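Hallway conversation turned thread

IA: we were arguing at lunch whether anyone had actually written out RNA polymerase factor sigma-54 end to end. Turns out nobody had. So, for the record, here is the sequence (428 residues) and right after it the structure tokens. Reply here if something looks off.
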Amino acid sequence: MAKIALKLEQKTKLSQIQRLTIQMLTLHSQDLTDFLHEQVTDNPLLDIRYKDVRSSSGDGKEKPIDNIKNRGDSLETGLMKQLRVQNVPKATMLAAGLIIRSLDEKGFFAGDLDLLGQDYALSLEDMEKGLALVQSFDPPGIGARSICEALLIQTRRHDDAPPRTEELLQDHYQEFLTGKWQKLQKEMELSNTDLQSIRDFLKTLALQPAGQAETETEFVRPDVEIYTDESGRLAVRSLEELPEVFFREDLYKEYEEQGDKKTRTYIHKARRAFLDLQSALAYRWQSIFTVMDCIIRHQEGHFLYGDTLQPLRQKDIAAETGLSTATVSRVCHGRYVLFDRRTYAIQDFFAQSYRRDSGAEGEISDQAIQQKMAELIGAEDGAHPYSDQELADRFAAADIHIARRTITKFRLKMRIPNSSIRRRLKNG
């Protein structure tokens, strides 16, 4: 017998104008143009016309508002496409899907196979088969549980790998990682030439499998431009070439005078829809302008003089402007801005803040920390490069407290190898 249960919960009920405003905030130029055409089609009292987009200056120069951004399928999407064409048992297919969804941003699998399969009644054997299947996909090394395994998978995919490379990775990886070349040569009975050949080959492999994922090229068009006005101040203007939607007052008056009650109710509703549309459009642009104006004020030194970014987060803009955090997020997501003839994502102008220790004033951005890290590493002694902890200690001496793991995260983001590898590279 079916069980009937009552559940009391609170839900936010949005008005029509609120839903319309939220929808339009997420739309970019071409999508918004298509949306406006749909509104005109649905509402017979609306019409549309395009503005004259010819340059008022008459210089005939085109603005470089197009740029290219790599935006292909996500890693997960690409792997799922490869999975769908496999002819394997259902349990293996399900296990592989679970593993793909559990990969980290670098393409590694760091989970527990047995625990991951329990909720779906999959055995450890099923999960191992699923992992082996994922590791056979492209990019090579995907699904590896460590850098060593990623290198091993890639090596097996290369027919031209030097002899005994697999043996070195399987049995002598720690000696290789720590640069104990003499011990390695003695244990494996390798000549200098053979060892150098293996080292040169391994340098060509990817340490992060996800970094090899291919992307498709797509043209993007910025919605706004940051420019310097006649007084030398930064300003914002729209680059959208949106059509103008207007209300047919002549038809409205005609139907108002001659139509019956049902017709008048319909045209009143049509007028209300037009007013809602105009309000949503105005709110959309005002929100974009408000967010961009706030970014300009905080990052003025970056735009004018190339200074490092100041600490700035979306919630900081929300608190300063009175906009909701959700609105700021919708404005920034996937939107681009033109500055100095180059196109940037709005997200590029945000920077995480790190508090200085007592005795120092203000905060420092993650970009400034990375710049300082690059300077320290660039000037380090090649025979004794800084470890991540030593870099953290350097910052602590400058009244900037940063955890070692944060230093490691920044170093990996900057694609700087660890101190052991840097020492070997600088000393041949």
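OS: looked through it. Confidence is low (pLDDT under 50) at residues 53-72.
IA: good, adding that to the notes. The two ends are 77 Å apart (CA to CA).
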